[in-house]
Write a sequence for this structure.
């Protein structure tokens, strides 16, 4: 991937190539600061390398200032270690990454809370796909409290972030309580302080019709002003 090959690669895809820990480590080094400066898109979908390998990849990518799109769908990553690595990546001051797709992993409720802390401060992300990431409601008291707190942190991040335009949250089970947590953040018809910068926010259709219509966005975000909105009760 270095300039010595006299090839300026901009788009690199290793889809379902059985890449493991060593491959991620090598890629990370090849894309670290002072190495490759041409790559804009990296696709590692369906390589089941897991958390430890992803950490090695991020160790190099966090000093990269040219990569713009990263896709790591269905790569067997999970939990707080996975979330912390993504957070580390998007909190890098040099990062130019505007699109991240981590569909089909298992960031989970607790991981979402950790990731959201980085999302709150990030100033480059435009498109985020965290669909089918095991962010599912659990009614066991302790798990429910964790889920609720993480979803609130996620909502706070969406209100603070000003660059995100599209989020795919499909195939994560919100349930009625989860929908109620996000309504003040996304329902622009009934809440004055709802997010006005997201153009698209996709949720699963298994929600009640009213909640789905209030949360799901598939177009331009509404601007403040005009018709007076109801205040949050």
């Amino acid at each position: 991937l270095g300039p010595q090959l006299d090839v300026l690669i901009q788009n690199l895809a290793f889809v379902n190539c059985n890449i493991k820990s060593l491959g991620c480590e090598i890629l990370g080094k090849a894309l670290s600061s002072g190495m490759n400066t041409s790559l804009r898109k990296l696709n590692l979908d369906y390589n089941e390398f897991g958390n430890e390998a992803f950490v090695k990849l991020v160790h190099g990518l966090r000093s990269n200032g040219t990569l713009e799109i990263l896709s790591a769908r269905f790569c067997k990553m999970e939990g707080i270690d996975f979330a912390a690595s993504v957070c580390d990546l998007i909190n890098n001051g040099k990062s130019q990454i505007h699109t991240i797709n981590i569909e089909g992993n298992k960031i989970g409720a607790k991981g979402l809370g950790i990731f959201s802390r980085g999302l709150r401060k990030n100033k480059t992300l435009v498109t985020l796909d965290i669909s089918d990431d095991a962010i599912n409601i659990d009614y066991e008291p302790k798990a429910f409290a964790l889920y609720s707190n993480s979803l609130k942190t996620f909502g706070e991040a969406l209100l603070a972030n000003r660059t995100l335009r599209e989020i795919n949250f499909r195939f994560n089970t919100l349930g009625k309580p989860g929908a109620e947590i996000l309504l003040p953040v996304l329902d622009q018809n009934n809440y004055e302080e709802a997010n006005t910068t997201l153009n698209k926010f996709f949720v699963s259709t298994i929600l009640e019709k009213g909640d789905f219509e209030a949360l799901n966005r598939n177009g331009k975000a509404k601007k403040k002003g005009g018709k007076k909105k109801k205040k949050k009760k």
Summary: The two ends are 56 Å apart (CA to CA). The mean pLDDT is 92. The chain has seven helices and eight strands.
